[in-house]
Amino acid sequence: MIRECTASDFETIHSIVNDAAQAYKGIIPADRWHDEYMSRDELRYEIDDGVQFWGLAENGQLVGVMGIQDVQDVTLIRHAYVLTARRNQGVGGQLLSRLLVSNEEKDRLLRKYWKIPARQIETSVVLAEMKSF
Known about the structure:
By secondary structure, the chain is of the alpha+beta class. The chain contains five helices and four strands. The chain has helices spanning 10-21, 40-48, 91-95, 103-113, 118-123, and strands spanning 2-4, 52-58, 61-71, 74-82. A hairpin with a 2-residue loop joins strand 2 (52-58) and strand 3.
């Protein structure tokens, strides 16, 4: 069941994000990587900034989350994470039916909607048509 996450899901979201982010360790350049990929303070900032998390729950437990944010005239997918133990089992496919973004479009969107360093734009990982979903 896909449901809107609530304040009581905060610790679970934090755990899922940091568990799932391990898949990007060694892919995300070292100067952009943190051993705790997203701290509680960073997660709180994201939520306070308008990111609304939705999650896929199985047997009452979240196994994947997706954050969306309304920015100007669009709704952006900001975060999409699936527990390592549930990867390649269709969880991501249920949360993200598809996200197809070219490098040029990714760069344009990041520059238009966020104030982030050029290095972060250059090194951002954006999901594309993932056959494993």
